[in-house]
């Protein structure tokens, strides 16, 4: 008996009237993950498209692959480089020693496998805990389990520090899924990005584990600041004195969250999303325009007390989470503006806000996460004013 036949045989037990009808969302989740849904539109009008929810979410996950690979390598590279000075510690180092892989930072396989030991527990915890919440809400409401959580779980895992405690991972994804999405009705009805909502909750609830100089390379005794922290305290020119070049930030060999460090990997993913038309290019243009324009203005104004005023736009582009947020968060279609003009405004608002938070607000050397959530809140209002302006313009045209 084939797998398709097996699903067809047990389906009557899960549909309405079956003995397990309350578990239909679980059955539908597994079936639609393995097969294209067999339901079709039976009445006119018919709309045919090769794009469905599963394909969209699959494309976004594919787009994150470059960030995953570079992230695994960079985490392992940073850890193995620190171990050369401070020595190995922890259960991950014990596994590496048991497997005989070694801690040579010049060996790509050793770096990737070591990075995998940090990423996998975070991702598995995210999938299990977040998936449980998805199933609970879908079962209670009688809705299908949406594939959107596959994207949320991947993005959430990639924006966390490598040594974040797993109980905090579980707490953050719970907050992001429940408060950031499900209380508003689920996928497609949320106005906040769930992955960023969970990350923001952890940032404010447990700042010691989400910021500072000791969380990015989890080796006992090691302390290393991110590029933004160095630039905020001593100016971006100090980065070169500490051995961090612009190319390091572009390629991703710097301190940071697991998947955010490589601007190149983020832009490869963004290019894929633009080519497949999953991402709207107007959001990208707006965000780049807002960031570049406000950076240039601050460069012209200058400051004798704030070294961040001098940071050029091309440094803002490759440090922190700007590139990752631009590729995967700004372009997220549900929480962004839906009108064409509104997309320009929404993107520009985020680009402006990220620079303002990084430069002018001394409490947050990073700013992309807060800027995107700020943009999420104002997206409906932006669309409202754009639509009202169109209505007034058309009304004047027909007077």
Automatic annotation (TrEMBL):
Primary enzyme class: translocase
Pfam families from the UniProt entry: NQR2_RnfD_RnfE
The protein's assembly and partners: Composed of six subunits; NqrA, NqrB, NqrC, NqrD, NqrE and NqrF.
Keyword ATP-binding in annotation: no
Origin species: Nisaea acidiphila
TM stretches of this protein: 56-76, 115-136, 156-179, 253-276, 283-301, 313-331, 343-361, 367-387
Chaperone found in the keyword field: no
Cofactors required: FMN
Function as written in the Swiss-Prot or TrEMBL entry: NQR complex catalyzes the reduction of ubiquinone-1 to ubiquinol by two successive reactions, coupled with the transport of Na(+) ions from the cytoplasm to the periplasm. NqrA to NqrE are probably involved in the second step, the conversion of ubisemiquinone to ubiquinol.
Enzyme Commission number(s): 7.2.1.1
Major location (coarse): membrane
Recorded GO CC terms: plasma membrane
Reactions that this protein is recorded to catalyse: a ubiquinone + n Na(+)(in) + NADH + H(+) = a ubiquinol + n Na(+)(out) + NAD(+)
Family to which the UniProt record says this protein belongs: Belongs to the NqrB/RnfD family.
Name this polypeptide is given: Na(+)-translocating NADH-quinone reductase subunit B
GO biological process assignments: respiratory electron transport chain; sodium ion transport; transmembrane transport
């Amino acid at each position: 008996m084939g797998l398709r036949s097996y699903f067809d045989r047990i389906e009557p037990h899960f549909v309405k009237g079956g003995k397990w009808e309350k578990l239909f969302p679980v059955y539908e989740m597994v079936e639609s993950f393995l097969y294209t849904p067999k339901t079709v539109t039976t009445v006119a009008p018919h709309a045919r498209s090769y794009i469905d929810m599963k394909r969209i979410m699959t494309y976004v996950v594919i787009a994150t692959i470059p960030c995953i690979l570079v992230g695994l390598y960079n985490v392992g590279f940073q850890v193995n480089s620190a171990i050369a000075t401070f020595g190995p510690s922890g259960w991950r180092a014990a596994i590496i020693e048991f497997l005989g892989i070694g801690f040579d930072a010049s060996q790509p396989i050793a770096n990737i496998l070591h990075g995998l030991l940090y990423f996998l527990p975070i991702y598995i915890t995210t999938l299990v805990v977040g998936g449980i919440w998805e199933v609970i809400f879908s079962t209670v409401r009688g809705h299908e389990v949406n594939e959107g959580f596959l994207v949320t779980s991947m993005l959430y895992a990639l924006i966390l520090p490598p040594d974040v405690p797993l109980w905090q991972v579980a707490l953050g994804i719970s907050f992001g899924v429940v408060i950031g999405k499900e209380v508003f009705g689920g996928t497609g009805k949320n106005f906040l990005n769930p992955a960023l909502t969970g990350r923001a909750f952890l940032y404010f609830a447990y700042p010691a584990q989400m910021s500072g100089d000791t969380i990015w390379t989890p080796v006992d005794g090691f302390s290393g600041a991110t590029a933004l922290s160095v630039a905020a305290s001593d100016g971006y020119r100090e980065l070169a004195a500490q051995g961090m070049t612009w190319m390091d930030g572009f390629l991703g060999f710097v301190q940071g969250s697991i998947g955010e460090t490589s601007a190149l990997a983020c832009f490869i993913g963004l290019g894929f999303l633009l080519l497949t038309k999953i991402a709207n290019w107007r959001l990208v243009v707006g965000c780049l325009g807002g960031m570049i324009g406000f950076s240039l203005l601050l460069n012209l104004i200058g400051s004798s007390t704030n070294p961040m005023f001098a940071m050029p736009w091309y440094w803002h582009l490759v440090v922190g989470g700007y590139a990752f947020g631009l590729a995967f968060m700004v372009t997220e279609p549900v929480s962004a503006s839906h009108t064409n003009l509104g997309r320009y405004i929404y993107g520009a608002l985020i680009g402006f806000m990220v620079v303002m938070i990084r430069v002018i607000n001394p409490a947050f050397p990073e700013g992309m996460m807060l800027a995107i959530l700020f943009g999420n809140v104002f997206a409906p209002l932006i669309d409202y004013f754009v639509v009202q302006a169109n209505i007034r313009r058309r009304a004047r045209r027909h007077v």
